Amino acid sequence: xxxxxxxxxxxxxxxxxxxxxxxxxxxxxxxxxxxxxxxxxxxxxxxxxxxxxxxxxxxxxxxxxxxxxxxxxxxxxxxxxxxxxxxxxxxxxxxxxxxxxxxxxxxxxxxxxxxxxxxxxxxxxxxxxxxxxxxxxxxxxxxxxxxxxxxxxxxxxxxxxxxxxxxxxxxxxxxxxxxxxxxxxxxxxxxxxxxxxxxxxxxxxxxxxxxxxxxxxxxxxxxxxxxxxxxxxxxxxxxxxxxxxxxxxxxxxxxxxxxxxxxxxxxxxxxxxxxxxxxxxxxxxxxxxxxxxxxxxxxxxxxxxxxxxxxxxxxx
Length: 316
Fold this sequence. Notes:
Elements (H helix, E strand, L loop, with lengths): L25 E4 L27 E4 H9 L3 H14 L4 H13 L3 H14 L4 H13 L3 H14 L4 H13 L3 H14 L4 H13 L3 H14 L4 H13 L3 H14 L4 H10 L13 H20 L13
Antiparallel strand pairs: 1-2
């Protein structure tokens, strides 16, 4: 069983978008040059105002960030690319270029931008964390593990980094270590619903459906409108034969996102199936409370700097 050392829990690192350190940082994008009519009789250097090249248009960090916040990720990537041309020493510009390119689906450009940000600032935590996600999506698991391990060395009390560490470990088949990483993330942030969801999903993938219920019950209690959380809860309930409760979870998922195919398929699968006689539906509220109490114990361990988390049950 892998065991880990917890330091005292510090305030969580914010996940907000990075802000520029000065509004005066600008870059330039060359405007399109008008073509002079070849039939013009003018042979001297005087050219009409309409045919002169337009002056460069300034691009500030705020301009590019505004496009990002509007969800215009391709535009934001081009704007941040222009910004870093004149501010090449600013790692935040390259970080935001990477983030924009990733959101726009250009993974290669995103990886390069994050790498450049880390060249400028090797301890740039946000670039380390988000480049890990890009590396995972590109199937570069070894690079992702190296990157997130470095992030944890810099910020061992980051719940986000611990959660992502769990994702990487699960991706490469180190499942028990992934479970501990997700538990650690939940201990560092008792409201990290994605850590709870990821833990529950991993238990489902391992066939440990009963263990999946408490973290998923707590995740859906904290965020009942998440179709992903409700769908995963529905899967665990269905596998355990709790068809009535599974139907309710799938219905909640579809109500939040009518286009969520997995939830719609699950709902169709359990609709019409009767609960077996003698099967008592689980008390999801009690399971959520149980998981919350367990997480508080883990957090207490963290605050007291005791070396290890409690063992997870039924280690395989």
